[in-house]
């Protein structure tokens, strides 16, 4: 009997002392543990990627400024990339901004007509197109057309070991390749932002006057009443920041792409997805900051 009690006490809980049996401890299913482990790795990887992208953005800005100051900036590469981005982004940007302005004014303007507030149709363009739509559309086009081209170009160079050869020759690839592309993307983003804002405002004006049959004077009056100089400043700042982010993400993914065509394709896909998600998060943060610094106009 004492042997049974002794064996029960060594195997299990106090219940085992009475019954002489062990009580198995409940364990979580293996797939649950694997799921938590995978989720933890994903979270750690995401934070690491955010840190790497932030470092790339700061490094690109620093390298651009250093190259300009020390006269090592590759102007030929800058003009080539600027012309390429303009050639692939201007027409799609206009084709997207015109229907976007039409739909925005038709939907919100139609609702304002139903409640008898047709005088605020012009304010929709001032707030919706200039502040929000123009920089976001610009960033999406630059990430989809320009960013993918930048990522694939740098990924192909990395696949051919050109990046490693530049390090061997004591040439910084960030300063030689990334800096001109970053500055070109920022400049083109500022130019495209103005085009998108103008096209969106004009398409909204046409929709309000010809389709909704509001007065042209009322549209312009509400536009001028609610528009502020800070709107265009906020729009241009967002466009420059989004352009910097798109080029930095594309450059980072291209320089760190895996060898082979499949690795380059995966890097291009990641750059577009990361830029698309990041610009919306960044847009919310910048908008909230501007709302605190410059409160909206109250009539």
Short description:
With 299 residues, the chain is an all-alpha fold. The chain has ten helices and no strands.
Number of strands: 0
Number of domains: 1
Helix proportion of residues, in percent?
over 70%
- Content of β-strand: under 5%
Q: Output the number of helix runs.
A: 10
How does the major sheet shape up?
none
Which spans of ≥5 residues are poorly predicted at pLDDT below 50? Answer: 4-21
SSE sequence, one letter per element: HHHHHHHHHH
Mean pLDDT score, rounded? 78
Shape: elongated
Could you tell me the radius of gyration in angstroms?
28 Å
Report how far apart the termini are: 92 Å
Assign the structural class, choosing from mainly alpha, mainly beta, alpha/beta, alpha+beta, or little secondary structure.
mainly alpha
């Amino acid at each position: 009997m004492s042997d049974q009690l002794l064996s029960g006490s060594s195997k299990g809980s106090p219940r085992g002392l009475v019954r002489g049996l062990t009580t198995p401890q409940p364990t979580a299913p293996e797939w649950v543990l694997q799921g938590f482990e995978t989720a933890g790795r994903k979270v750690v990887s995401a934070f690491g990627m955010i840190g790497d992208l932030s470092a790339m953005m700061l490094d690109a800005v620093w390298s651009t400024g250093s190259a300009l100051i020390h006269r090592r900036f590759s102007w030929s590469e800058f003009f080539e990339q600027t012309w390429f981005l303009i050639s692939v982004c201007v027409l799609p940007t206009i084709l997207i901004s015109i229907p976007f302005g039409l739909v925005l004014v038709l939907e919100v303007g139609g609702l304002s007509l139903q409640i008898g507030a047709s005088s605020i149709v012009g304010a929709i363009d001032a707030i919706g197109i200039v502040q929000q739509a123009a920089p976001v559309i610009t960033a999406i086009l630059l990430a989809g057309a320009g960013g993918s081209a930048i990522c694939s170009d740098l990924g192909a160079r990395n696949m051919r070991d050109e990046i490693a050869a530049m390090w061997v020759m004591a040439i910084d690839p960030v300063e030689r390749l990334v800096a001109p592309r970053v500055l070109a993307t920022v400049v083109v983003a500022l130019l495209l932002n103005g085009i998108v804002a103008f096209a969106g405002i004009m398409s909204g004006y046409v929709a309000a006057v010809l389709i909704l049959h509001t007065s042209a004077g009322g549209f312009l009056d509400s536009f001028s009443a609610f528009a502020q100089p800070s709107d265009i400043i906020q729009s241009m700042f967002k466009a420059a920041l989004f352009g910097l982010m798109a080029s930095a993400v594309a450059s980072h993914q291209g320089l760190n792409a895996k060898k082979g065509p499949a690795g380059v394709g995966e890097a291009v896909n990641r750059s577009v997805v990361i830029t698309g998600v990041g610009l919306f998060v960044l847009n919310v943060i910048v908008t909230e900051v501007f709302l605190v610094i410059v409160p909206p106009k109250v009539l």
